[in-house]
Amino acid sequence: MLPAGENLNFVDTHMHTNLSNDADKRITIDAYCVKAAKVGFNAIAITEHIEMNAWEKDGFVNTFEKSMTANTKAKEKYPFLISGIEMGQATQNIADAEKVLQDKRLDFVIGSIHELPGREDFAFLNFHNVDVNLLLRENFLEILRLCKWGKFDVLGHLTYVLRYMSKAGITVDLRPYNDIIAEAFKTIIAKGKGIEINVSGYRADYGKTFPTLKYVKLFKDLGGDVITVGSDSHAMHNFDRAIRSDLKKGAQIALDAGFQYYTVFREHKPTKVKIET
Ligand SMILES: [Zn+2]
Ligand SMILES: [Zn+2]
Question: What residues are neighbours of ligand 1 (ion), with CB under 5 Å?
């Protein structure tokens, strides 16, 4: 283990604890922070799932409150900690999403799409029973809608749906959606927002980042300046693996796309951290 301070350009701004219902029941903020302090992280962000389409129905009101209370307390002990959320489906409940965003305890918001209106979460969809091309078009149009709203700090895992398509043995060509993706990028670039390189794909059948270098480079070439890298850890072994390899590979993708700095948000204000591998 490296002594504290030796890796101060390490960041990971996408992590779930046991407050997220799909995470390991044993994983806590403290466990991540103790590990991050040992490795010498510049910043880590706890970003629990807050699914706005199920805000009241599935208890996300409570999850949000518990998370903000726990993050705020932990920040006193761990100054590198960022209090974030992964806000899912803001487009499906904009009124509550905008109320959540007013909370002053919130430093950082990842805007994600995990399911489409009237459809199940991608994790539970049977891709052999749907028109995959239609689904992909709907997905990127929904992401474009999210970007037009644009009140998050970074767009999470642009190509997340491919995690489950790949698991179902379906390979796809994203080129038909490049125009929609480019429009989504231009929309958030104009608002000074960023995208995330989500390295959780290395742990899945997909084996690549969400999105891949090609799209990170497109974002950069269109004038994008704000990039984050996140492990999307749901357990300590995910974070361990991220520290060993995945975050470094993510950093390399950012560098290959032409970025020299990560952006880290506190109180939604961006600061830059030099990317090193
Ligand atoms: Zn997600
Ligand atoms: Zn996540």
Answer: 112
Which pair of tokens denotes residue 48? Answer: 């629990």
Q: How many whole angstroms from 219 Cα to the centroid of ligand 2?
A: 21
* Region 29-44 average pLDDT: 96
Q: What is the pLDDT of residue 276?
A: 84
For residue 114, the CA-to-ligand 2 centroid distance in Å is 10
Distance 170 CA to ligand 2 centre (A): 22
The predicted model scores a pTM of 0.96
Residue 193 near residue 223, CB atoms below 8 Å: no
So what's the pLDDT on residue 9?
76
| Residues 230 and 198 sit within 8 Å (Cβ to Cβ) | yes
Has residue 3 got a pLDDT over 60? no
**Protein residues placing their CB within 5 Å of the ion ligand 2:** 86, 232
Percent of the chain with pLDDT over 70: 97
Give pLDDT tens digits for 131-154: 999 999 999 999 999 999 999 999
Going from the N-terminus, what domains does the chain have, and what CATH number goes with each?
A: 7-275 (3.20.20.140)
